[in-house]
Amino acid sequence: MIIIGKKYLQPLPVFLAIFFLIVQVVTNLLLPNLTSDIINKGIAKSDLNYIWAQGGTMLIVALVSWLAAVLNVYYASIQSQRLGMRLRSDLFEKVIKMDESAFSDFGDATLITRTTNDVTQLQNVYQTALRMMLMSPLMLIGSIFMAWNLDHNLIWVFIVALPLLAIVAVVNIAMVMPRFRLMQEKIDKINLIFQQGLTGVRVIRAFNRDNYEIEKFDRANKDLTKISQFVMATVAMLGPIMTVILSATNLAIVWFGAQLIGKGLMGLGNLVAFLTYATQILLSFMQLTAVMVMVPRAQVSAVRANEILNTEEKIVDPENSESLSAPIEMKFIDVSYAFSNAERPALSRINFTVTKGQTLAIIGGTGSGKSTLLSLIARLMDVTSGEILIAGRDIRSLSQYNLHEKISLTQQKAVLFSGTVKSNMLYGRPEATDAMIWTALDIAQATDFVKEQGGLEMTVEQNGGNFSGGQRQRLAIARTLIKDADYYCFDDSFSALDFATDTKLRTAINSSPQFQDKIKIIVAQRIATVMNADQILVLDKGEVVGLGDHASLAKNCSAYQDIMRSQLSEKDLESMGISLKIEEVTEGDRS
Ligand SMILES: Nc1ncnc2c1ncn2[C@@H]1O[C@H](COP(=O)(O)OP(=O)(O)OP(=O)(O)O)[C@@H](O)[C@H]1O
C-alpha cells in the first residue's frame, strides 16, 4: 500500500488534506472547552455578555471546523479518485503490453478483478486514510489530552475502557484478516466462471450443461457469500460491542462526575465537556478500528496490483533501435521457443528464409507450433534461443512500433471490436479511404455480405457477435490486408472459409499488385490452401520435418504425404504418384 501511495499520491494536495484535517481536529477539540466555559462562567453566573461573546467564538470555531472538513474531504476525494484512475490505467497498460506467456500465466479473470475490484478497495482505503485514518488517532490523543487537562479525577474511566476496546478490536481483526485474500480469490473465481459462461454459452447449451454451469456458479457464489458474511458479520459485531462500552463509560462518567460535583470538586460545565471528550475518544477509537479493518483488505489488493505492475516486461524496445532499409526478407536462424510451464519446447531449431514476393505456407498437426511461430514473428513473445531477422535485422533490435508497422497479422480466432465495419477497418489503417476499405473487403471476399447488411456503417457488436464465423474471419482478413505492411501473416485464417472462397481469396491476394512484392505467411491445415505457396514448412511437434515446394514435399516428405493422404482423393494422389496406403511408406522414407 505504501508503494502505491508513494507512486500515485501528489505531495501538495496530500499535505493540504492533512493540514485541513489538523485544523478540523484542533477546532473540534476546542468546542467542548468553550461549552464548558459558557456553562461555568456564563450560565452559572448569569453573565449574558460572556455567553454572547463566547457563543460568537464558538460559532466562528465551528465554521472554521466545517470549512476545514469540506476542504479535507475535497482533497482526500480528489487524491483517492486520481490514485484509482492512474492505477487502473497503469494496470491496463501493463496488461496490454504483457507478453503472451505472462498473460496466460495470470489468466483473464484475475486480471479483470485486479484492475477493477482491487483498485476500488485501494481507492476507498486512501479516501478513508486521508480522512479518518489520521483524524481518529489525532482526535483520540487530543481528546485524552484535553480531558486530562479538564479533570484528572475521571481519567481512570478511560484507563479501563480503552484497553477493553483494544482487546475487542484486535480479536476482531485477527478473525477477519486471513479471509481477505480468500475473498479476492473467490471474486476471481466468480469472474472466471462468469466469463467462461458468457464466451462458451453456445457450447454449454449444446452439451446440455446449463445446469452444471449454473450449479458451478452457485457454488462459487455461495463460497464468496459465506466468507463475506463471516467477515461482514464479524466486523459489524464491533459496533454493538463498542456502543455498550461507550454507554457504560458515559454512565460511569455521569455517576462519578455527579459525586464530584456534589463534593464541589468539579464544575457542571467540566462534566459536560468531559462527556463530550469521552464520546470523541471512544468514537475516534471505533473509527480507527473500522479503518484498521479496511487496511488488511486493501493490503491484499495492493499486493495483487503490484504483482501485475512488477511483472517483468519481457518484450522491451532496445535503447537505440535500428531502422529498416534493406529489401524485404525474413530469416529464422535456429529459432526455439519454450513456454515457461511446458515440458517440451513448442518450437525447436527452426530455420528458413523467405524473400521478397514469396509466400511461405506452414502446415502441421494440431499443437505442432504454427501459432507460436507467428506470435514470435510479431514479437508477442521473444525467442528462447536463435534469431528472427527481417530485412537483415534481428527483430529485437527494432522498436516494437517499427516492427508492428511492418507486420500485419490475422490471428486464428478472428477478433473484431465493437463499432462499425468501417471503424474495424480503420483499426488496420487509420487514414484509409472508403475506396481502400472496399478494395480490401473485395480481396477478402467480404463485399457481398457487407453491402447486403448495411455497408461500411454497419454495426459490429462485441466480438463481432452479429456475424457468422466465416464473415468474422473475412472481415479480420480484410483488416489485415488494408494495412500497408511488408509481411502479411495469416494464422489459420482461411479455415473458416469454404473451399471456393478460400481459393478466390488467395487468388485475389496473389493477383493484387499491392501484394506482389510482399511476404505472405499462411498457416493452414488444408493441402489445397498451401500447395501453391513458394515454400511449405511442415511442422511436427515443434520441429521442421519438411521444407520445400509442394512438388518436392509430395515426393520426399512422409509427414506431408500423410497429410495429403488424409485430404486428397485417390485420383489426385495417383496423379501425383503417391500411394494411398500408409504402410507402403517405409521407415526410410519417413526419415
Ligand atoms: N500459453 C501456453 N502455455 C503453455 N503451452 C502452450 C501455450 N500455448 C501453446 N502451448 C503449447 O505449445 C505447443 C504449440 O502450440 P501452438 O498453438 O503453436 O500450436 P498450433 O500448431 O498453432 O496448433 P493448432 O493448429 O491446434 O492451432 C502446443 O503443444 C501447446 O500445448
UniProtKB/TrEMBL annotation:
The chain crosses the membrane at residues 12-31, 51-76, 129-148, 154-177, 230-256, 268-295. Gene3D superfamilies: ABC transporter type 1, transmembrane domain, P-loop containing nucleotide triphosphate hydrolases. GO terms for molecular function: ABC-type oligopeptide transporter activity; ATP binding; ATP hydrolysis activity. It is a multi-pass membrane protein. Its main location: membrane. Keywords: ATP-binding, Cell membrane, Membrane, Nucleotide-binding, Transmembrane, Transmembrane helix, Transport. InterPro entries: AAA+_ATPase, ABC1_TM_dom, ABC1_TM_sf, ABC_transporter-like_ATP-bd, ABC_transporter-like_CS, P-loop_NTPase, Type_1_exporter. Residues 15-297 form the ABC transmembrane type-1 domain. It is found in: Cell membrane. GO terms for cellular component: plasma membrane. SUPFAM superfamilies: ABC transporter transmembrane region (SSF90123), P-loop containing nucleoside triphosphate hydrolases (SSF52540). Residues 330-566 form the ABC transporter domain. This is ATP-binding cassette subfamily B protein. It comes from Lactovum miscens. The lineage of its organism: Bacteria, Bacillati, Bacillota, Bacilli, Lactobacillales.
